[in-house]
Design brief:
Layout (H helix, E strand, L loop, with lengths): L1 H31 L4 H19 L1 H10 L7 H20 L6 H16 L5 H33 L5 H37 L5 H18 L1 H9 L6 H20 L6 H15 L7 H34 L1
Helix pairs in contact: 1-2, 1-4, 1-7, 1-8, 1-9, 1-10, 1-11, 2-7, 2-8, 3-7, 4-5, 4-12, 5-7, 5-12, 6-10, 6-11, 7-8, 7-10, 10-11
């Protein structure tokens, strides 16, 4: 029964990642009008599984064995998965793009502390530094890509040709971002299960399918938030933000570092928004999202810590 609950909880976390983080793959493209929501989520559901199968194991190892240095009790892992999942479900219901990676890492650290297991502070500091730098790096990269591509665009004489090319590039950037999401977040989904010794392509496939189902069933709300509430996106802005975030997340996945696709995409969207002037960026909306980023790992960690202590007390009684 415990094994079944563990895998159902892991599936639930994956579903949440798909529901909340799909917006990071398609929000800019849907907002620019180049892709329909339905077509975009079908594309994402396919490439997220491919990304997980090809490159999901590195991040899974970091989340599973890098944050907490020894195997955790099954009850602790179950509590951590449920805590992270519930937190992201609430955020998704409120249409807020939060970092599911931060929720998982925070929950794993929380249950590590609750069980008295040694938490790798050095690894947590390394991950935290990347979280802080991530949106700023993506903003700079998307700004540079926008400037570069726009300078080339003005030299293309045939507007129709450019429009067709832009459509192809945006389509490719969505697929690449979905691949990067799978490469990074499938590992985040199954990482706590890896801590218990589970492994194999079947486990990665389970994580990818869970994310894909979340994509297909409950991703519209957060997509609407990212598609238009931060800044108005044209096709060039959408492509620049999308490709910048995809490159950044993919590189971190190769290094085995769990990063936030939400941070990457929001940073990239702000970067292209700055091209039009800082007033084009909704600072209130960005502030709300940033507050969510700060609250996510802390809240998930505290929730996991408290729930595990209560579960142990209840079981002991």
């Amino acid at each position: 029964m415990m094994t079944l609950l563990l895998f159902l909880s892991g599936f639930y976390v994956g579903w949440n990642i798909g529901a909340n983080d799909t917006a990071n793959c398609v929000g800019t493209s849907v907002g620019s009008g180049l892709l329909s929501y339905r077509g975009a989520i079908l594309l994402v559901s396919l490439f997220v599984i491919i990304g997980g199968l090809l490159q999901g194991s590195e991040v899974a190892a970091t989340v599973g064995k890098g944050v907490v240095e020894r195997e955790l009790p099954q009850l602790a892992v179950l509590t951590g998965l449920i805590s992270a999942g519930v937190f992201v479900t609430l955020a998704t219901a409120l249409k807020l793009p939060v970092s599911t990676t931060q929720a998982i890492v925070g929950a794993v650290a929380g249950i590590g502390l609750a069980t008295g297991s040694p938490v790798n502070g050095k690894k947590l500091l390394e991950i935290g530094q990347i979280w802080v730098l991530n949106p700023f790096l993506m903003a700079l990269l998307s700004y540079a890509i926008y400037r570069l591509v726009s300078s080339v665009m003005w030299r293309v004489r045939y507007v129709g040709l450019w429009d067709r090319l832009m459509g192809i590039l945006v389509f490719a950037s969505v697929a690449y971002m979905a691949f990067s999401l799978g490469a990074n977040h499938v590992g985040t989904t199954i990482g706590p299960l890896v801590n218990l010794g589970y492994s194999g392509k079947w486990l990665i496939t389970l994580g990818g399918v869970a994310i894909a189902i979340g994509v297909l069933t409950y991703s519209r709300g957060v997509t609407e938030t990212l598609s238009s509430s931060i800044t108005i996106l044209d096709p060039l802005s959408a492509f620049s933000a999308q490709i910048a975030a995809a490159v950044g997340v993919h590189l971190f996945s190769i290094l085995g570092i769990p990063v936030s696709t939400s941070q990457a995409v929001v940073g990239a969207v702000v970067g292209v928004g700055i091209v039009k002037g800082i007033r084009a960026v909704s600072r209130r909306r960005v502030l709300e999202i940033v507050v969510g980023w700060v609250a996510t790992p802390t809240s998930a960690g505290l929730l996991a810590f408290g729930l595990y202590k209560l579960a142990v007390l209840f079981a002991g009684g």
